[in-house]
Amino acid sequence: MAGQETTTSTGSPTSGSARVPSYIPEVQGLRTVALLLVASFHVWFDRVSGGVDIFLLISAYLLTRSHTARALNGKLTSPVRTVVKKFARLLPAAAAVIMLTLVGVYFVDGPRYALDSLWSATASATYWMNFLLQANQVDYFAAQVGSVDPYQQFWSLSIQGQVFILWPLLHLGSELVARLLKRDVRWVLTPVFGVLTLTSFAYAVQLTAVNQMHAYFDTAARLWEFGAGSLLALVVPFLRLPRTVRKVMSWVGILGVISCGLVLPVSSTFPGWAALWPVISAGLIISAADSRRAEGEPATVNAFLAHPALRIAGGYTYALYLTHWPVLVLTESYTGRSAATPVLGTIVLLISAVLAVVVTLLVERPAAAFVSKLSAPAVPAEQQDAFHHARSSNRASRIRAVVVPAVVAAVSVALVATTVIGVRHMSRVEVAAIEARINSTEPPLVNPDEPWTFGAMNPSFNAGERVYPAHGDVKASWVSGPHCTDLGLTPTSNLCWHRESPNLTDDPNDILIVGNSHIAQASAMFDVIAQTGEHNLRVRTFVGPGCDTSMQHWSQPFSDDMPEDTRPQRCERAWSAAGEYARTVRPELIVILGTRQGMPDEGEQFFESFPEWIASNRAELGSDFLVLRDVPRFANDPFLCAADNGYGSRRCVNPAPPAADPVQVAAIEQAGGIWIDLTDAICPGGECRPSMGGVVTYMDDNHLTEPFSQSLSQRLCDAVSPRVSWFPKEAWPDVQ
Fold first, then answer.
1. Which of 9, 50, 5, 55 is nearest to 30 (CA)?
2. Given CA atoms 610, 612, 618, 624 in this order, what sign does their dihedral have?
3. Does the model's pTM come out above 0.85?
4. Rounded distance, CA 444 to CA 467, Å?
5. How far apart are CA 36 and CA 352, in angstroms?
């Protein structure tokens, strides 16, 4: 994946020297199979295949194999030369795809998405994209424009880039120690990579159990896969296996590689114990292909992996890995789909393949040839007339070997920087023009202190483009409130806030709201009702951002022994804290989401065993359970569509989802749950509009804005009060 390293095979291990490594066709074939798995699983199955883990292993295997062979022949590793030549080979193709992707985002998604993609483009060109993805995963409430990053595939290339800097340093250090101790360098490299592999693997297992999303992009949690490849490179030259055994190993490895993504939930279990599957499978293939052979034995052991078609295709795998993801993301964005159909997926792969060939032939290979030509000595040293000429030529060649690749890498980064600056300027100019049209010099017609006059309460009110919230505030329109400090909870342990009626008595009606960010936005309705003077309500909202329903943690007290800034623990903390609060206070009403809306082509999901959970807790707590239907979710962001096309544009109107499954609803109500569906209020007449009654409805593709949620308060009262005797009939009883 990361460039086309020479897939070669060492000769027999000796204490003093090693032959120049020779070509291993099976490794090139393995690289091709892994890439096809990565691309096809992304495009057709919306799953992760485990192919990236194979790339990481191969990269380290070839790197260590090459440096070890050089060291055994008496040559020290030059980290500077290795690094600059490596990046000179990788960066041109990467830079081309980064620039093409940025231009594609600008024209397909619009200037706002292009502005949002600038950081990702920069991070991809400078090999820290995995860190950016980690940061974005941690900060759930960050105001991000795009839900799927078109540069996400660069996370693995960034980790590889970081390892390509670290590994030559480890090799050089080990070679110097080996010379000092007068030992074979492999005796030093083996414990170095052994300790690194075991330490990283232990860390990966622990971090995956605690925060898998963070671990997936973590460099330290991935080092063990590189370390395993390096250890394999040190061990394989000593292996002498019967050809039959090698054939069996190779085919077992192929079956393991292909089945990994089908059998394992890679995206939710790697890089922990489950990642051993593809690593061991690839290790079997490489060991079978590169172990010592008997005299006269054929060079290849697996005709399938050594097939010329796979070997030729292997020369395009790096470019195809770069192109397939942005083509998929932009195609889905353009068509408004969340997943590619078989036909659309085929088109995506064909477009990706064509782009890969173009990038390889017009950028990657010419850049590599240019570097090789200019960094090599013009005349071999042995042909020089005199000793000082030979020294001068060798010195010049060493300088060229560093300077020329460095210039190529620098030019590639400069081209990306120029594109970033250009797209940023164009986007800002266009966004400024749009905002000048949207942001009238007059204030919005909506009075935010009177929610009964706007939004869902007054859907026929037409404010034109003078909508509320202000254009720059929409993306930060999250619901929050005074923190639950009286419960001894810290803001980092979970999100909990409370609202109380101003004339609260000693015997209030307690409402507990628990769930994900959608329930957090819905809590704005209850907050409005609680704060009116006529009611006697105390509302607590526990939120685990990104946690659909984590009911299994409801009855489990949470331990504070583990780190707090992790997504799984946010879910666990929110639900366990809410469960503890429910058992202590026994609130009159517990509010929870009953479904998860998918994209328009995905449908709606009801949570497993939800009715049984409601029945059990109603019996234990004596509380009523209010079950809200999830809000509609869209393939594109209605707010951004309106920002580009106007709030009256029919292009920005999405159809409402179909009615909820009556069988599932009946099961919830039979268990004692009170089913509430406000879809008709959110999408009146079956149309979900970007603004209603002078208010922006959605802040992104799946979250209501706080003001619009507030405007739904009376609709909530109308739905709940007939079924819960004490629930207010009017959200604003003092309003005539």
1. 55
2. positive
3. no
4. 6
5. 12
